[in-house]
Amino acid sequence: MDSHSHSHSQVDGSFDESHDSFSNNSFNESFIELDGVEKVFDVRKKTGFMRSERREVRAVDSISFRVARGEMVGYIGPNGAGKSTTIKMLTGILTPSGGRLRVAGIDPSRERTRLARRIGVVFGQRTTLWWDLPLIDSYKLMHRMYRIPDARYRENLDRCVELLELADLLDVPVRQLSLGQRMRGDIAAALLHDPEVLYLDEPTIGLDVISKARVREFLRDLNAERGTTVLLTTHDLQDIEQLCSRVMVIDHGRLMYDGPLTGLHEVGDSERTLVVDLERELPPVEVPSARVVRVEGPRQWLAFPASESAAPLVARIAAEYPLVDLSVREPDIEAVIAKMLHSMRDTPKPPPEQAERSGRAAS
Amino acid sequence: MRARLLRFGPDALGKAGVVGSGRLYAAVAAGGFRRYATYRAATLAGVFTNTVFGVILAYTYIALWDERPHLGGYDQSQALTYVWLGQALLTTMCVMGTGFEEELIERIRTGDIAIDLYRPADLQLWWLAQDLGRALFQLLGRGLIPFVLGAWLFDLSLPASPLTWLAFLVAVALGVLVSYSFRFLVALAAFWLMDGAGITQMAWLAGVFCSGMVLPLNVFPGVLGEVVRALPWAALIQAPADVLMGEADLLGTFAFQAGWAVALLGAGRLLQVVATRRVVVQGG
Ligand SMILES: Nc1ncnc2c1ncn2[C@@H]1O[C@H](COP(=O)(O)OP(=O)(O)O)[C@@H](O)[C@H]1O
Ligand SMILES: [Mg+2]
User: Fold this and answer.
1) Cα–Cα distance, B64 to B58 (Å, whole number)
2) pLDDT band at residue B139 using 50, 70 and 90 as cut-offs
């Protein structure tokens, strides 16, 4: 404890000098490094009067991966898989129980405050903004808290305000903002100090379609223009499709897949749904590579492989049937993951080490 | 451990660090002030309540002091001054709670505290700055008007010397510090208790009884009186009142208040270190 706190304050004192040398470090090609990282929670459960039972929850179970500077990675998995726990360890507000973790060469839990100046975090269900005060007041606090040079602060604020369309909201107390507006406000707050990496824990949860689209577009630009590394967890497959070239799937704290999204679709063998409205009630549509899964009056639901384009299918149906309207439904992420995990369990289960390696090989 | 305890804020070392931290916490304090200033209707209602209670208490005290002149060493005019001072300082000192502590407890309960810990700012200083802003607003917005009204309606014994008023303000500031440090401790207890409501209610009861908001602590008899006058709550209303009415030894009073402030702030810092450790290892 003594040596820990000592190094802590020492590092703080020499922050200004070390900052530049760190940014230019060439040996740190992978920006985020996890080697066999674990997090075990001690959960105490009451079993009776004055009696409790201790149980260990392995929230994260020996996860290893690397993320290069400028990558945009999706981190997905069922509820309770360990996504938020991983992000908390990456920010340093949770210490790993085992393994090795580095962000920009820094051990987050040992140098939390120093790292905080270089990373941005958005927790979808929490807010950093000041509830009772106008949005702009929270930004002024960020300005002071992160010691952002004035010109830089103004430039970043202007940019965020423009791209996230916050101009009309700056003087509105945060408690009066809608969820989507608040989320945009939170994303801006996380970016004013030019973080090198942005962690987003379910940034689109509960947002309306328009807010979702705006947030995605903003993140894409941020990554493309500033080269900000982005790691995001989500339940929305479209977030991943539109943003991430790489996706990691975790389940029960273990990394089950690491690679491109298309690979995930194939592994999971998931299906999209084409909903067609015909002019009148007809027998189930017959087309190759799709099967009708439901008929309700003139409306029919067709399932087709998610990896295939819907265009030829639509063209064919339009040519042969009296088509009035149509829509395509993406598979939801739970279904994709469930299918993938299911197909993995069907095949003889590889030991965790191997599962990880084969997963990574796909990337 | 020692190094941690002494470290106030992330960059306490270095002049630039001190200036930067100063600007941050000044901004936080200004925010604290404005937060409360936005609730105008609540402030107005509060001013009204304080005035009404002041009038009721004043007539009760008049009756009491008619029966027992020089009760607790105060004459009637001093007793009335005490009443109106109590009304003016009630919300400033958060005697009955409803300060930042409820918010902090809620953040601990919901896990939002993780965000606070992740920021490059010190938890105790952050909330202290915010609470000082709040106290200043409530002194001006809620305390001043009832006090002026009281002085206009009743015969109060107020000092003529501006120095005494200045000393009074110092005593108020120290009182706010004691009040804050105590409530910070109460709030952090939420890390270990399932339900923060119980402990805030106990703190509230103790505050109402021991701060002298109902009866001056001078009036409490025997050992009970000696005990309550030695407890931290005596720093909130009794100490500033005695300073204002020239009934106190200045340095002794300031030392008493500052002593409690340092002790409670120190305890809060220790608890914060332990709590942070717990969050960081156990996830809350
Ligand atoms: N502070 C904690 N104490 C005990 N168990 C926890 C704690 N935080 C998370 N867990 C458990 O760890 C597992 C992973 O949680 P989490 O990382 O929040 O999952 P996700 O974000 O993927 O939904 C869950 O079983 C959860 O109950
Ligand atoms: Mg989560």
Assistant:
1) 10
2) very high
**Mean of pLDDT values over B9-31:** 77
Domain shared by A196 and A319, yes or no: no
Strand partners of residue B23? none
- A361 touches B at CB < 8 Å: no
What does the DSSP 8-state code read for residue B143?
A: I
Tell me: the pLDDT tens digits for B156-198?
999 999 999 999 999 999 999 999 999 999 999 988 886 667 8
Query: A28 lies in a domain?
Result: no
pLDDT surpassing 70 at residue B7: no
The secondary element (H helix, E strand) that includes residue A75 is strand A72-76
- CATH number for position A174: 3.40.50.300
| Burial class for B63, CB neighbours closer than 10 Å (0-12, 13-18, 19+) | exposed
A238-263: pLDDT as tens digits: 888 889 999 999 999 999 999 988 77
**What pLDDT shows up at residue B204?**
86
Which candidate from B3, B10, B23 shows the least CB-CB separation from A144? B23
Q: Does B15 touch chain A (CB under 8 A)?
A: no
Please count the residue pairs, one from chain A and one from chain B, whose beta carbons lie less than 8 angstroms apart: 94
Is A114 found in the same domain as A163? yes
The reply to whether A100 and A156 lie within a common domain is yes
| A319, A330 contact by CB (below 8 A) | no
Mean pLDDT, rounded, for B92-115: 86
**Nearest by CB to B280, which of A5, A109, A117?**
A109
Instruction: Name which of B4, B5, B31, B209 is nearest A173 in CA terms.
Output: B31
User: For all residues of chain B together, what is the average pLDDT?
Assistant: 89
The predicted structure's pLDDT at residue A293: 87
The reply to whether residue A113 touches residue B281, judged by beta carbons under 8 angstroms, is no
Structure tokens at B130: 């915010």
Q: Which residue bears the tokens 């300082």?
A: B89
Cβ pair A128:B115 closer than 8 A? yes
Alpha helices in chain A (DSSP H): 2-13, 15-23, 83-91, 112-116, 135-145, 150-163, 179-191, 209-221, 237-243, 261-268, 311-320, 333-346, 352-361
Residue where one domain finishes, among candidates A266, A288, A320: A266
Residue A307 is predicted with a pLDDT of 76
Q: Measuring CA to CA, which residue among A106, A113, A92, A3 is closest to residue B8?
A: A113
- Let me know whether A155 and A199 are in one domain: yes
Q: Are A201 and A96 within one domain?
A: yes
- Rounded CA-CA distance B131/A213 in Å is 39
Question: Would you say residue A352 has pLDDT above 70?
Answer: no
User: Residue A321 domain-assigned?
Assistant: yes
Interface of B with A in 216-235 (CB under 8 A): none
* Contact predicate A276/A300, CB 8 Å: yes
Residue A296, domain member (yes or no): yes
Query: Considering the domain boundaries, does residue A84 fall inside one?
Result: yes
Highest mean pLDDT among A36-45, A47-56, A264-273, B125-134: B125-134
CB contact under 8 A, B120 and A15: no
Q: Which domain holds residue A280?
A: 271-330
